[in-house]
Amino acid sequence: MSHLLLSKKSLYIAIMATGMICTYNISMAYADQSENKPAINIGEVNGQSSTAEKNKKDNKKVDLKSPVQTVHITQRDIEDNTPSGCSMVEAIAATTPGFQARRTGTASGANRYQIRLNGIQIGFDETGQAEMNGNQILMDGIPLNNPLASYHGFSTAELPISSMFSGINVVYGPGTAKQHWFDSMGGTIDFRTKSSGENPSAFVDIGAGSFNAYNASTGISTGAIDGWKTYIAGGYTRTGQARISPSLTGPSESSAIFVKTQKKYQSGKFSAGFYFNHTEENRPHLIPVYPFAGGSVNGNGVEGPALSQVTSGFYYTPSSNLWRKHEKYLTYLGYLKLTTDLSSNVKFHNAVWYRAGNRLKVRVDSYVMAPKLDTEYYPTSSGNFGYRGDFTINLPWNKIDVGGYYQQTTYDSSFAGYASFIPGHKLGSNSPVYYRDDHDHWSAASAFLQDKITPVSFLTITPGLNLINYHISINNVTSVSSADLFPNDTIGDFPTVAGDTANFTKIAPSVAVNATITPALHAFATWSQNYQTQIDSAYGEGASHPVIAPTQPAKINFYMAGLKYAQGPLEGQVSFVHQKLSNLAVQITQAESQNIIVEPANETINGLNFLLAYGHNLGFNARLLGSILHGTENTVDAAGQAVNGAMVTGLPTYNINFGLGYRMYADQTLWSIRALDNYQSATYLSSDITASPTTLQLPFSAVNLVNLSLSARTTMFDHDIPGLKLMRISLMLDNLLNRKYNVQGYVSAGGNYGAGSAGSILASPGTPRAVYASITASF
Fold this sequence. Notes:
Layout: H1 8-17, E1 29-30, E2 40-41, H2 42-45, H3 52-58, E3 70-74, H4 75-81, H5 89-95, E4 99-103, E5 113-117, E6 120-122, E7 135-139, E8 142-143, E9 165-172, E10 187-193, E11 201-209, E12 213-225, E13 228-239, E14 252-265, E15 268-283, E16 287-288, E17 295-296, E18 299-300, E19 323-343, E20 346-365, E21 375-395, E22 398-418, E23 434-456, E24 459-476, H6 478-485, E25 501-518, E26 521-532, E27 554-567, E28 570-590, E29 595-615, E30 619-636, E31 642-647, E32 654-666, E33 669-680, E34 684-687, E35 692-697, E36 703-714, E37 726-734, E38 742-747, E39 761-765, E40 770-778
Parallel strand pairs: 7-10
Antiparallel strand pairs: 1-2, 3-9, 4-5, 5-6, 7-8, 9-10, 11-12, 11-40, 12-13, 13-14, 14-15, 15-19, 16-39, 17-18, 19-20, 20-21, 21-22, 22-23, 23-24, 24-25, 25-26, 26-27, 27-28, 28-29, 29-30, 30-31, 30-32, 32-33, 33-36, 34-35, 36-37, 37-40, 38-39
């Protein structure tokens, strides 16, 4: 391979030729000046087959003409903001106003995060959340959420390998009628996979970091073969724990593979994809912030130093002999997609998919030396079949979208609780102290009609209607299954509380307006409603006593309005948001008896999102983005008393990012250094005792975090390594100032740490300073 001859001037011209003029995102095109080789487009090197004009459009942070507020996170964003082997949600948090990410372990993709968009969350939280599946997660436009599962409707650990993805699209709120999905409440987040370019290519990425973390991934593009282009990718990531303990439970690790094939034909495009993920996560115990009577590092009532963050250490956790939790996820997804031009102005899109998921949680708790449920064995499985089809009709001054989707879900959830202090009551034995089994069914059918009207050149109005039908069936089959599984068990408690069914039909309207004030300044406003079914426990899943099932689905009434600006190196937006959520269900689980308390609730979240970014392709660049949100909740407590105006659990009022960077080209290398400063204000707690939010703040939850990243993209080694087109080396420092902070917590009723611990605040600490390095070679 001949040496690529590059100069600073030729590289800069090549960069500009790709159209990448985003203020703080540039993809490089390395021009081979020899006559017998084409220019190398870095987008194609990394598996993206897109033209320069499309890239220019996609890389704009502020889409001026969008009828709703959206953010596009590019592949370059993901690379610049995701530490090696870590979760892509770090990139969303660094680039998306109003987005918050809180992780329960290290930044690894094998660990799960709680994520919020405009204060509405999905993913694991400790307790008391009124809206637990409030954001729709898609992969290539295909839904990943389990609509029935509570905290486990989606885990970020299901998408652990960031190098597989070319971008992320974020839509705020339900969006327009065409954008509605069954969990599109706070927003919709679509993770877009890479595709093969016209020419064969490949990359290899390896990395390592703090806490014995390491990862490796690869992607291969076949190029065009008889019109077919196929992309194959796979990866593995693992991390140890940042916690200090006499005995830790082990690492968290995740692997994934992905295959996608596509073919363009005269009037359309066909694609097929398959994805598999296997994650095993080990999680240490939450830690009491302050000591409680009888609690020591050796167990409840056992002699030893007091157990708490302020006594035994901020990151201390009891030995895994006293407490451990292991979770396993398996995800399978297959899909077919077809786009056809039926005529010059009519296009038909359709997709069919099947997603299967399995989750197993095993928990052992020997901290409390007293009779109790010591071990949980909690397997679940789900299957989701769906179809979506829609037509786009382009008419003079109008673009009409009409279509719909159908998804059917089955969800099997069983739970076995054992007491290890009784001989024979070990995990996997035939004698659980408590056992339940539920087989549930869910379906959604949606039809939408949307019209994008352009009465004059400077104004677009997009009204729409979405007709939605949901059906839920929760079926307790414990009395049937327990007789087969545990025929000789006379000790166990097998609850026979019946489940429930529900059927809802609703119309969800939306209106979006975009007005051109100047070519660089647009105003927009969106009003949208959507409906969502409540989680399984609201209909009796796992209950030891009857619950009152909801008579209406959860509802959001969403307003957002603001200004967008993009001119040369300067981009900005400011938007005001008002969200009213009603008919929510708060679930509180009392672990000893598996009683489920379900209380109705509603939330109101008002606030402001903002973004201001400046920068040229080379030189200094800066950005300021964030949100100021005020969320309140109305509900009832365990005693049936009204709780009105409580602060929404886990939501910081202030979430602000400031980033500053510099880029320069020298010695055939593009050098980049970036610092990001994130401030999050304190959050409020809920209580397992009262089954309601509190006025207590989570100690050490207000935090200012600084991250630093350095990278070099170079061609200087091309003549030394056959086939090499580009090498990228990166170094990232997470929590540079080594701040101690808590990410989640709740007020305990005493179930985890036993007598004397009721009323204690239990917390999950954030990760201390960490360093991650990686090297990527593209061929």
